[in-house]
């Protein structure tokens, strides 16, 4: 069993959706015995809250997903509890690395490196201050990136940047 933690800033827009889409791909490919997933935020602004209602509405509309994750803050122990930590952008990545303990196990990656269409981009853009189009774009991006990431995990072909 390999465990994956998806991380963004607030844990209400990007990472809970990445978690749910990754799990959907895992379920569809009958891989539930091989992979588990969770999500967290580097900030504590929204602890205990469900995902943003715009994220939840788009998840239901485009992928028939009901997001039930409640926001929690990323912590140093996540480096020990997970095999992979997947950051949504470089700022998240830097804030994750500040909490890296001596005995870290997890490998830290950038989600956008698994974009199958556009190379050379680093970020899943934060839609929080955006409009419906921004939430839709993030949904499609995360659907693609989580699917490619799962494929690469299955091929043991992971680009480690930590
Ligand atoms: P997320 O989006 O990091 O994708 O969950 C954000 C959520 C909340 C805030 C910023 C980004 N905020 O400033 O409260």
Structural notes for this entry:
Helices cover 37% and strands 14% of the residues. It is α/β, with parallel strands linked by helices and 162 residues long. It has one domain (2-155): Response regulator (Rossmann fold). A 4-stranded parallel beta sheet has the order 2-1-3-4, sandwiched between helices. Strand 3, helix 4 and strand 4 form a beta-alpha-beta unit. It is globular and about 40 Å long. The mean pLDDT is 96. It binds 4-nitrophenyl phosphate. 4-nitrophenyl phosphate binds at residues 8-14, 41, 45, 126, 128.
Describe the secondary structure blueprint for this structure.
Blueprint: E1 2-8, H1 15-28, E2 35-41, H2 53-63, H3 78-81, E3 84-87, H4 90-97, E4 107-110, H5 132-154
Parallel strand pairs: 1-2, 1-3, 3-4
The chain binds 4-nitrophenyl phosphate.
Provide a brief overview of the structure.
It contains five helices and four strands; from the N terminus they run E-H-E-H-H-E-H-E-H.
